[in-house]
Amino acid sequence: MKKLILVIALEVSFSQSALAVDYTINFGVITDFEVLRPLADRCTDFGALERYRNLLESAVDLESLRELLENFGIRRFSGCPKNLAGTGITQVPEQRVR
Fold first, then answer.
1. What are φ and ψ of residue 21, in 5° steps?
2. Phi-psi region of 88 (alpha: psi -120 to 50; beta: other; left: phi over 0)
3. What is the value of pTM for the model shown?
């Protein structure tokens, strides 16, 4: 029974880590802030911008937040969907522990 619980726990942790990745976002070079929509809707951690979560999630047009967002420079979001791309958005490579 203990082995089964361990296997299930390992499966859950590995499946979640495969789906949740980190991104660095350079707000100063983004040409269309709507490319951030999947990150604003689905990231679990906005890092230093966590206090702006409600604003980012509820904005009808993220472009309307350009003046505010450009001032943040480079920030990191975590727990995001895989394989998103756009000017100013860089997926952080997963680091493997040896």
1. -125, 165
2. left
3. 0.72
